[in-house]
Amino acid sequence: MAAQELTGAEIVIKALVDQGVDTIFGYPGGAVLPIYDALFQQNKIRHILVRHEQGAVHAAEGYARSTGKPGVVLVTSGPGATNAVTGLTDALMDSIPLVCLTGQVATHLIGNDAFQECDTVGITRPCTKHNWLVNSAKELTRVMHEAFYVATNGRPGPVVIDIPKDVQFQKAEYVGPQNVVHKTYRPKVKGDIEAIKAAVDLIATAKKPIFYTGGGIINSGPFASQLLREFVQLTGFPITSTLMGLGAYPASDKQWLGMLGMHGTYEANNAMHDCDVMINIGARFDDRVTGRIDAFAPNSKKIHIDIDASSINKIIHADIGIVGDAGHVLEDMIRIWKSKAVKIDKSALADWWRQIDHWRDRRSLDYKKSDEIIKPQYAIERLYQLTKDRETYITTEVGQHQMWAAQHYHFEKPNRWLTSGGLGTMGYGLPAAIGVQIAHPDALVIDIAGEASIQMCIQEISTAMQFMAPVKIFILNNEYMGMVRQWQELLHGGRYSHSYSESLPDFVKLAEAFGAVGIRAKTPGELDDKIKQMIDTPGPVVFDCVVDKFENCYPMIPSGAAHNEMILGDDPEAAMVTEEGKMLV
Amino acid sequence: MSNESNIERHTIAVLVDNEAGVLARVIGLFSGRGYNIESLTVAEVDQAEHTSRITIVTVGTPMVIEQIKAQLARLVPVHKVVDLTVDTKAVEREMALIKVTGSGEKRVEALRLSDAFRARVIDTTHNSFVFEVTGAPDKIDAFIGLMRPLGLVDVSRTGVVAIARGPEAM
Ligand SMILES: Cc1ncc(C[n+]2csc(CCOP(=O)(O)OP(=O)(O)O)c2C)c(N)n1
Ligand SMILES: [Mg+2]
Asked: Could you give the number of structural domains in chain B?
């Protein structure tokens, strides 16, 4: 290939195009002007101008998680970079592949406290999978291609490339991605066959088995979800999943127990607690899932499959740890399962299912219905019923509404559910929805929001308007930071310190001020019609759903409790929180 | 999941690409996740390949030690992580420069003891010595302990470097 001399800014654009990028999310400023100039002079990459850099990163996350491709962000130095930090941390916690380009002051000014200088690589080192400060345009090609490789291979995550302004002007040779091989980073995707065989043998002996799956299946790609379905159906075992894993297994299937963890179903958590063999695929024993560690599934043998070796034995000891990509390992597992013609203990399994059905009969997601006020759970149920037959994507903010969405909206396919699981970032849902909508222009994209969370990135309605991204913001307006209020009730004697949503804007008028459509529903009777009206509106909608202010989210494992110590909605008095539990978040 | 009773000390060697910020990554990993560093040494070991070797002495439960190794191994510029305490019998050495001041009996005694420890005198004045002493860390601890009552005023230690015994490379 003939050597091409390009400016640093042109190298950035060319590398993005060669990496298959057609959309980036960003916000300009002094330190990225050359890149913006190069953007202006091409038409292969579409730039979505956000209203705050946090929004750019969440939008890129939404884009990435709904497409399986890496999301790309472009921001300026200093405040542009620091505003991106929340999004980067969010993507790191939830393993979302992102490439974030930040401008930096010119190399000769670095370290001088120059205007809009900050130590971007220093600040973002702990919140990225890797980052680079590019000292000369000569390094830029390699770093650009390496960045995509690192972000998307192994356990995915965000990376930052910090590019000083003078480097954007310097000329250097451009090389295509095919010639770049990373020096050190070689993640293991194939699991150890002996360990997989041992896992199959262990699974074959199970009397009370359970699949516990997570976001790793989604990250592995749709094929992994397909293999999961095949394997789960082959075994006839029950399956539950983390918040991040919803959709990998169809919620309508009879083997599905619902989500597990702090606000998971009674049947999922009790089955976890009593199981004898646990098959964890792509989940990380997060504290929202395990509850009290020393009481976690005490009588079980555990198989843990994860692409990140550091996830195995981090929190919970695994009897068999398999480092590898969920899809590859499942493929090998199914093959070995079939070739061994495994015979499972059918009568033990039938007993196990009888026990599970008994837990199911507890109907832990039930709630008191009302004809006068809209119960938040009812609102989600109706939203589900009225949108499930369309191509629908759901994002959320953080709080009770997020948990109700996870409980009452049911997913049949992967990549349709986007929520901030690890970091729990209020403000994630709206920009993430915009990112999804940009990638899927014809889909119905709904941000299930709380009235407090939505205000954190509300400015992005303007982005949705500008780019005709017809996202629907469905606010469960309970006039409280409901999740905070619930914890204050449980742990702090009902002293609602600063958790009331005072001085709320009129969300209908707010929508109109942005040029969007505002809809308000106040009674259960009008809810369906209004939701239909929302769906039929061609542009962005803010839906102010006025719900019961005091509803709490159940069932719940209080902090510091075990899986079999759930509080149920019809028996909230049973809430027992230990002194130790109070210390936990 | 820390069980105070089974704390172990491990010496871990990490071969890294000598790129900007790599040491900050390693140190940030330890501080960010609350692991201990007893000592850490680093220097380039292959100029042509731009690789550096970091030797870390750390303490923790077996589960924490396993975590530390896994966390180090997943850093992007890391080539290799070897636990010299588990994988092999390793030799460990540390060097210290030790300044002792005083005169008369104490001065004579310091010089006599330094001989027993094969410490070298690398600087001297009428009322001071700087000793260079090399050995396993506990030997250096012992030497410093003996010098304390004899006028010890300053200590500079390198931290442990270690290498596996036998013909095998890392
Ligand atoms: C950025 C950020 N700040 C603070 C919190 C802590 N927090 C978790 S849930 C919550 C309340 C959310 O209120 P709202 O959006 O109205 O949702 P609701 O619980 O009422 O459904 C708060 C403050 C957070 N998760 N994220
Ligand atoms: Mg609220």
From this structure: 2
Superfamily of structural domain A5-179 = Thiamin diphosphate (ThDP)-binding fold, Pyr/PP domains (3.40.50.970)
Mean pLDDT along residues A519-523: 98
Cβ proximity of A141 and A112 under 8 Å: no
Decide if A184 and B1 are in contact by the 8 Å CB cutoff: no
Domains A193-360 and A376-546 share a fold: yes
A398 lines ligand 1 (CB under 6 A): yes
Distance of CA A309 to the CA centre of its chain: 21
Question: For the segment A238-279, what is each residue's pLDDT rounded down to a tens digit?
Answer: 999 999 999 999 999 999 999 999 999 999 999 999 999 999
Q: Which residues of A touch B70 (CB under 8 A)?
A: 309-310, 312, 314
Is there a contact between A251 and A411 (Cβ–Cβ < 8 Å)?
yes
Are the C-beta atoms of residues A14 and A21 closer than 8 Å to each other? Answer: no
Choose the final residue of a domain: B52, B83, B114.
B83
pTM above 0.90, yes or no: yes
Containing A160, the helix (H) or strand (E) segment is strand A158-164
Mean pLDDT in residue range A343-370: 97
B43 and B107 Cβ atoms separated by less than 8 Å: no
Q: Does the annotation count A474 as an active-site position?
A: no
Q: Which CATH superfamily is domain A193-360 in?
A: TPP-binding domain (3.40.50.1220)
Task: Look at residues B48, B83, B118 and tell me which one is the last residue of a structural domain.
Answer: B83
Residue nearest to atom 1 of ligand 1 (CA): A426
Q: Is the CB of A548 under 6 A from ligand 1?
A: no
Q: How far is the CA of A366 from the centre of ligand 2 (A)?
A: 20
Q: CA A570, CA A383: separation in Å to the nearest integer?
A: 24
* Predicted local confidence at residue B87, as pLDDT: 63
Ligand 1: residue whose CA is nearest its atom 2: A426
Task: Please check the confidence at residue B38 and state whether its pLDDT lies above 80.
Answer: yes
What is the distance in angstroms between the Cα of B145 and the nearest Cα belonging to chain A?
A: 39
Mean pLDDT computed over A499-515: 98
Considering only residues A88 and B4, tell me which one the structure prediction assigns the higher pLDDT: A88
